[in-house]
Write a structure and sequence with these properties.
single chain; eight-stranded parallel beta sheet; 16 helices
């Protein structure tokens, strides 16, 4: 049995953290779905930036859209939605077979809206309508301002991938925003089955403390934070509040592990795939990590529902001078700023491509 299938049988979905037009047109994504148990994918500005910059697959579409008078964000979102529609159609049989639990693709609102709830909701509604695919998540950052946007988007019926979560506290706040949206739909007599996932970023923890802690603590903080968050996830699903919503037909907001490519060259290239195996979760991984796990991956222990040794490990980091709450806040703020920088770079890349194509005639 393939290693990736073992994760699938455990109840964990494997999603690809990548999308390119080449990946779609070459049949590679279809191969990953058929042979490596990939059941969804995510995208972000950096992924699209690299895809457009490093290939000519988008040249004809960019040239055509520019002649139509489109530029900037409008042009980019049309390119991205074209790709994501194709991917969504490939995953649609999985989506239908799992009654909407799996088979999703994700598109991010402009990262510049991370601290503007009203504009985020407006953009989420517009992009989801423009895509015309039921299995498209709109990614909304889980910043404090984003909570109101998450709640309202869910109430409006837009499936949401909450991104930029770094701690159990971040997760709980995002989950409660989702639950408020669902509860409002129930109160209004609307169908509560609006799907959502909550994306916890893992490897950035270990990168942030790499030079600040003893060797025996390196590459352990991200996994400990994940264990703490998994306990919070299980606790929420067992709570009377969630059970009331579930009895009305609401579906759980699934916990998703993001940023699971290993950043430490000395560590295993499948570190965060092996360590984060858990039922009712998703691991969205870079292409390189997917292929590595398919080649030589093994399953470790399943994440304990009670958090296991999470608090003991985090306490060791506290003694080493790491304030996990402050670091979570810093990582979220830095992540939001990084997404904005990637967004600006992406739009600059498109304009550069336009200029190059115009010069080439």
């Amino acid at each position: 049995m393939k290693q990736t299938q073992q994760l699938h049988d455990l109840g964990q979905s494997l999603w690809l953290d990548n999308i390119t037009r080449k990946l779609l047109t070459s049949g590679t994504l279809g191969h990953y779905i058929e042979d490596l148990s990939v059941t969804g994918l995510t995208s972000n500005p950096s992924i699209f930036d690299l895809a457009i910059k490093d290939s000519n697959f988008y040249d004809d579409a960019i040239r055509k859209k520019k002649k139509e008078g489109k530029s900037g964000e409008v042009l980019f979102f049309e390119l991205a939605i074209e790709d994501l529609r194709q991917a969504a159609d490939l995953f649609r049989p999985i989506h239908d077979r799992t009654a909407g639990m799996d088979g999703w693709v994700s598109l991010e609102v402009s990262p510049s809206l991370a601290y503007d709830a009203a504009s985020t909701v407006k953009a989420a509604l517009h992009l989801h309508a423009q895509a015309q695919r039921p299995n498209l998540f709109i990614k909304i950052p889980g910043t404090s301002e984003g909570h109101a946007a998450i709640e309202e988007a869910i109430f409006q019926g837009v499936p949401v991938n909450v991104t930029l979560l770094f701690s159990a506290g971040h997760y709980v706040a995002a989950a409660e925003a989702y639950l408020r949206g669902v509860e409002r739909r129930i109160a209004a007599g609307l169908d509560p089955k609006v799907r959502s996932v909550a994306s916890m970023f893992i490897s950035r923890w270990d990168k942030a403390v790499m030079e600040k802690v003893p060797k025996d603590l390196q590459d352990r903080l991200g996994i400990a934070i994940a264990k703490r968050t998994y306990k919070a996830y299980r606790d929420l699903l067992a709570s009377p509040r969630w059970q009331r919503a579930a009895s009305s037909g609401a579906q759980p907001q699934r916990l998703l592990w993001a940023s699971t490519g290993t950043k430490d060259p000395k560590a295993s290239d499948i570190l965060y795939v092996k360590a984060l195996a858990a039922p009712d979760t998703i691991n969205t991984i870079p292409e390189k990590t997917l292929l590595a796990f398919a080649d030589h991956g093994t399953l470790g222990k399943v994440l304990p529902e009670d958090g296991g040794d999470a608090e003991k490990v985090i306490s060791a980091f506290t003694k080493a001078g790491i304030d996990d709450e402050q670091l979570a806040a810093d990582l979220q703020r830095e992540g939001a700023a990084s997404f904005v920088a990637s967004w600006k770079e992406l739009l600059g890349c498109i304009e550069s491509k336009v200029s190059t194509l115009k010069a080439a005639g």
